[in-house]
Amino acid sequence: MHDYFNQSLETYIHAALFILFQSCFLIQLYFLVTNQSRLTRYKPVETLPEASVPISVIISARNEADNLRENLPAILEQNYPDFEVVVINDCSFDSSDIVLEELSARYPHLKIVTITEHVRFKTGKKFALTLGIKAAKNEHLLFTDADCIPASPNWITYMAANFNQPIQIVLGYSPYKKTGNFLNPFIRFETIKTAINYLSAAINGDAYMGIGRNLAYTKTLFFSVKGFAAHMHVISGDDDLFVNQNATSANTAIEINADAFIYTDAKTSFASLFRQKKRHFGVGKLYKQRHRRMLSIDAISGFLFYILLTSCLVFNFEPLLAAGLFMFRLIFQMIIYSRLFKRLDGKDLLWYMPFFDAVYYIYLNTFGLIGSLIKTTEWK
Known about the structure:
By secondary structure, this protein is an alpha/beta fold. The protein has a domain at 55-268: Spore Coat Polysaccharide Biosynthesis Protein SpsA, Chain A (Alpha-Beta Complex). The protein contains 12 helices and 9 strands. The strands form 2 sheets. A 7-stranded mixed beta sheet has the order 3-2-1-4-7-6-8, with helices on both faces. A two-stranded antiparallel sheet has the order 5-9. Helix 1 (2-40) packs across helix 6 and helix 1 crosses helix 10. It starts with a helix and ends in a 7-residue tail after the last helix. Pfam families: Glycos_transf_2 (PF00535). The chain crosses the membrane at residues 12-33, 295-314, 349-374.
C-alpha cells in the first residue's frame, strides 16, 4: 500500500511538472506570435527621408575625454540642415573641458554646459540631462551618450523624420560593436533580444522602454510631465522610466533603419557587466504594473521552460515529447529571428540561439532578482 501510494504520488508529480512544462511552452509561443512576430512585418524606410525640424542632440558626459575626442565629431558632422549638439560636462575631472573647448572652436553648433562638483550636493545623470534640455534651443531633442557613434551621417535625419503629429517619442536602436572578447557574443545577443521586445511592444501600441543611447522626444512633453520628477530619486531610468511613464499608442514611433543605428562598445569583464546590469534592472520595479507583469511572465516562463525541459530529459519522463516541443519552439524562433537578427546586425549570432536563449532566461531572472534587492547609488 505504501509503495503504491509513493508510485501514485510520483506519477502525479511528473504529470503536474509536465503540464507546467507545456504551459510554459504555450506562454513562450504566445509571446513569439503576438508580440515579437509583429516586428518582422514592420518595414523601415529604406530611402533617405526628408526632415527639417530643428534638432538638439543632448549628451551627458562624465570623465569622457577620450570618447568625446573620438566620437563627437561624427555627431557634429551629421548631414542635417539645422541642429545643435549640447554636451553637459558633468563634474568631470579629466581633460573633458579641454577637449570640448577645442571642438567648440571648430564646430560653432556645439554648446557646452558645465556642472561643477559640490561637496554637499551629488548630482546624477537626470540632473545633468535636465540642464541640457533647458539649455537646448530646439523643441525636438535627440539623446545619445559620449561613448556612442552613429552608423552613418544620416542618423539625425532618420530619427527626426519620425516627428510628425502626434509623435512625441521616437525609439531608436543601439547595437554593440562586434569584438573578439568572450562576453561580446552574449551581450550582443541579449541586446537584440531586448530590442525585439521593446520595439515590438511599441509597434503593438504599448511601448514600455527605450534606450538612452538612441532616443528622441520633444521638450514640450518633457516639461509637461515635469521631466524626471516622478523618479528623480532613482539614479537610473532617465530613458526607460521616462518612456514607460509617458509613451502612448499614439505618440510613439520606432526607427530601425541601419543608418539610424548608434554603436557603442560592450563591457569586457564580468565585473563591469554586473555593475551595468545591476543599474539597469534596478528600475524595472518602477515600471507600470502591466509591464512588470508581462516581463515577469516572459522571464519566469522561459526560465522554467528550460529547467523543466532538462528535468524531462534527465529523468526520462516523456523525453521525446519534451524534445519535440523544444524543437518546435526553436524552429519557430529561427523563422522569426532570422529576419530580425539580420535587420538588427546580429545575423552571426543565430548559430548561438539554442545555448544563448537558455542563458538569456537565467540571466534575466538572476539580474531581475539582484536589481530588486540592491540599490544603485552612482550612474557613472
